[in-house]
């Protein structure tokens, strides 16, 4: 449990100071995104929509990060984007993902040093499922290398670890 109070015979209950919950919560608040990020699902902008729909569900991901020819982030495709294009009746087996993706600079990103609480607040405030974790590529103007993915699932897992330690 949380071990916030202790009891002694003929003395009673007394406060131990910080409880385990507070200690665990403060440990999470000091974590950077690079400590908890996962591997992203990546695609190239000329990949076909049909192939990405299959990959998205096989890998159980909420989004796919799209890279350009220099392997830098140029777009993002979510489940909603893919649903919209298929509902429209397009021939998704011959439609490149570049036609339906959200393009840079309209994508929120975070850097690997970002603290977990800040990244989680970005997810909640912007009502999005994940954020690409990026690093600016040396010698390029605004080109971003994708390092990982920070998602609501990561936040939920951290919450479970804090509240239900084994």
From TrEMBL:
Report the residue ranges that make up the CBS domain in this protein. 36-92, 101-166
Q: InterPro entries annotated for this entry?
A: CBS_dom (IPR000644), CBS_dom_sf (IPR046342), CBS_domain-containing (IPR051462)
Record Gene3D superfamilies: CBS-domain (3.10.580.10)
Keyword annotations of the record: CBS domain, Repeat
Protein transport as UniProt keyword:
no
> What name has this protein been given in UniProt?
CBS domain protein
